[in-house]
Q: What sequence folds into this?
């Protein structure tokens, strides 16, 4: 379990790569709705949960959040289903079609070995595709949402 310094566990960490992005003019987030000014001091424990909860719920209900979730689901669910189907096909063929799986391809290498190694290749290919999809289709929008949430809850401060 991570150790905390006793501060707000929801606050951004010092090593957060987004902390200096706006100040360094490397990237300025899209601010669809005007952000509330940062809170000068952390609110009381009872009020903080309610206020933050309302802000989190508002962001969760926003069109931008729904778009990010839709893009994630649009890639992750079909990719996972295709991978599971491919894996199950391999297992079913290995158990029901030993003649096919035992057919030699080159030398002592048979179809089962090629299909088994293709499972590893598919895993790496799927990982690469997921990372690329996240970078191209979701990271910028998710960063905008996180920036907006951090500024509205007063978490852009760094201790």
A:
């Amino acid at each position: 379990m991570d150790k905390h310094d006793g501060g707000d566990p929801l606050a951004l960490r010092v090593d957060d790569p987004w902390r200096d992005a706006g100040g360094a003019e490397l990237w300025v987030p899209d601010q669809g709705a005007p952000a509330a000014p940062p809170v000068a001091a952390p609110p009381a424990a009872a009020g903080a949960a309610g206020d933050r909860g309302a802000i989190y719920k508002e962001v969760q209900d926003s069109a931008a959040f729904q778009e990010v979730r839709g893009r994630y689901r649009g890639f992750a669910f079909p990719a996972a289903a295709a991978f599971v189907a491919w894996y199950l096909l391999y297992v079913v063929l290995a158990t029901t079609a030993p003649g096919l799986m035992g057919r030699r391809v080159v030398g002592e290498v048979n179809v089962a070995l090629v299909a088994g190694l293709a499972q590893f290749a598919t895993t790496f290919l799927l990982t690469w595709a997921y990372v690329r999809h996240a970078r191209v289709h979701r990271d910028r929008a998710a960063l905008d949402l996180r920036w907006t949430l951090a500024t509205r809850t007063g978490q852009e401060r760094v201790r």
User: Anything to note?
Assistant: Confidence is low (pLDDT under 50) at residues 24-28, 33-49. The first helix runs from residue 45 to 61. DSSP finds four helices and two strands in the chain.
